[in-house]
Amino acid sequence: MFSASTGRKLRRLNLTWHRDLGYFFSSLIIIYCISGLALNHLDDWDPDFIIHRKTVQFPANLSVSQVTDDKVAEFSKLVEESHFKIYDFPTDNQVKIYYDNASLHVNLETGTGQYEKIVKRHLFYEANVLHRNSLAGWKWVSDIFAIMLIVISVTGLFILRGKYGFRRRGAWFMLAGLLLPVVAVWLFYYTS
Amino acid sequence: MTHGPYLFFCRKYHILLMQPAHNPVSFLFVLMISSVLFSCNPGNRETESESNDRKIGVLLVNHGSRSEAWRNSLLDLEKNVRDSILQGGEIKDVKTAFMEYTEPSIATRLKEFDREGYSDVILVPVFLTVSSHSFDDIPTLIGQKDDPQSIESFKIEKMERYTPQAKVHITPLLDFTDILKKNILRRYTEVSKDAANEGLVLIAYGDKTYNTEWTRLMQNVGDYVKEHTAVTDYDFGWCGHIAHYNPDSTTLPVSQVLKKKKEAVVIPVLVAFDEMFQGRIIPNGIKKIPSSKEKVIYRPDAILPDRNVEEWVIRTSLDFSNNIVHPKTAKAK
User: Fold this and answer.
1) A118, B157: Cβ pair inside 8 Å?
2) Distance from CA of A30 to the nearest CA of B (A)
3) E-strand stretches of chain B
């Protein structure tokens, strides 16, 4: 199809593209993989935040009218918060107090308070921000990255020749890899 | 210092506003008090004049969805209430905002109200009962609260926070009324074939933090249907985030009801139709029941459209605007 010299040039170009794109996108690939692992288990953990929870017991049988600024300050001291921002009543037997990066939700009938402090899960949080396109304009970088991943994959197929090249060993491995999503989709349509 | 007592006051106060119609004596008393107040105190004329300078808008806020059908139901709600709300002349415009997923967002709408010189915005949350969305997210989005979890999730979800120049008045939620009970009863009787041999299954979104309130709401609705029909058994389940959107949470209450009854009638307690919930999660849960086609009656409908919900939106908006324009009269009530 091509002359020998054109073939050599194309292979060299293929190798160069694969190598340099691979180097360039390696960090982003790893970041997306870490985030992918984190987001894959959304039901099992919060991949963005660590929420420190503490249950605190306050006097029971308080009414909404008894919850004054002083009372709220008193509650706050018990959870080691020096000042609160605001408080509000979700129902007629509950009060929620807001702090910087924390909140305290008290059931006035039982006196049970749930204190929650939110802390970023650094590294995962930042990786997820990128992976979920939470940054304005990042979706264009993501699109380019996705296209480049295709280029890296396709150029990778044609690096080696001979026994370990795509035409012999490579094709079988590629087909085996393709089988996994094909079976999964088949299961999705015919068993669910 | 806090908005909390104010918000709570509004919620409670709404109930007071609703009562005079049922109690003519107190209503007359209120009229007498307000007429005395207005005739004796010249300061009130000033207040009245200031009140007349106000420009009031209504913002119907709903959860938002990627489903176009869902969004259209909420836009239809706006269309159906618009003329009645604007008729009185005190409210100048009605808009709809979607809290998540799509535009127009709450921030977009509030910016529009600000640009158009509105002094007050009555925010009507079209939500069933208390949840993190209604209690934390909406007030945080409009700058009335700083809930740390909401703020962080807004950054991730690219939801804009905007504190408007207009004063925002948040109205109570749907569960303050009997509308939901009547809605479910109507929808149940429309599909029921033999109430004595049927059990009722209610599937709602649910909320982890306010699970007690959601449970109580479902029990109230279920009891109401029991009182007004021959149904003797009901159960309920969640289909939202609390249940990880898992169809099994529908399967479980249906199978519980079928232990006692020949058939189960599944009613989605969801504001509008969404392909993901009424079209996939709930039917997939039903499919897991053996002989579900014979044993389960299911119509993938929603609370909307409902004339009572429309009337509730109209009444709530007009009550709040009346309170803004005539604060002294309303407080005397």
Assistant:
1) no
2) 20
3) 56-62, 91-98, 120-125, 167-170, 198-204, 233-238, 263-269, 296-298
**Domain identity same for A131 and A103:** no
φ and ψ of A46, to 5 deg = -95, 110
Helix (H) or strand (E) holding A54: strand A49-57
One domain for residues B46 and B136: yes
Residues A128, A98: one domain? no
Query: Number of A:B CB contacts under 8 A?
Result: 68
Chain A touched by B291 (CB under 8 Å): no
Task: Examine the fold and report which residue of A85, A100, A120 is the final residue of a domain before the chain moves on.
Answer: A120
Are B139 and B248 found together in one domain? no
ipTM score assigned to the predicted complex: 0.70
Asked if B146 and B200 sit in the same domain, the reply is no
pLDDT in tens, B28-48: 444 444 443 343 344 444 455
Which is higher by pLDDT, A119 or B53? A119
**Among B residues 220-259, those touching chain A with beta carbons less than 8 Å apart:** 244
Set of chain B residues whose Cβ sits within 8 Å of the Cβ of A64 = 8
Return the half-sphere exposure (C-beta side, CA atoms, 13 A cut-off) of residue B31: 8
User: How many domains, chain B?
Assistant: 2
Please indicate if any CB of chain A lies within 8 Å of the CB of B83.
no
- Nearest chain A residue to B10 by CA distance is A89
Residue B217 identity (one-letter amino acid): L
Interstrand relation of A49-57 and A112-120 (parallel, antiparallel or unpaired): antiparallel
pLDDT per position as a tens digit, B67-89: 999 999 999 999 999 999 999 89
Residue A81 has pLDDT above 50, yes or no: yes
Q: Is the CB of A105 less than 8 angstroms away from the CB of B210? A: no
Q: How many domains does chain A have?
A: 2
Chain A positions touching B147 (Cβ under 8 A) are 98, 103
**Are A37 and A84 in a shared domain?**
no
What residue numbers bound the domain in which A182 lies?
A: 4-46+123-191
Instruction: Kindly give the pairing relationship between strand B56-62 and strand B120-125.
Output: parallel
Is A98–B148 a contact, with Cβ atoms under 8 angstroms apart? yes
Distance CA A130, CA B306 (A): 42
Residue in B3, B157, B284 closest to A88 by CB: B3
Could you tell me if A54 and A113 lie in one domain? yes
In a mutational test of the A interface, the residue from B142, B152, B175, B251 whose CB has the highest number of chain A CBs within 10 Å is B152
User: What is chain B's mean pLDDT, rounded?
Assistant: 85
* Residue B303 belongs to some domain of the structure: no
Strand order through the sheet with B167-170:
B91-98, B56-62, B120-125, B167-170
Supply the range of the domain harboring residue B151.
Answer: 4-128+131-172+308-332
Q: Is B3 on the interface with A (CB under 8 A)?
A: yes
Q: Is residue B29 part of a domain?
A: yes
Domain shared by B223 and B161, yes or no: no
- To the nearest whole Å, the CA of A160 is away from the closest chain B CA by 43
Same domain, B157 and B37: yes
* Residue A63 sits in the same domain as residue A98: yes
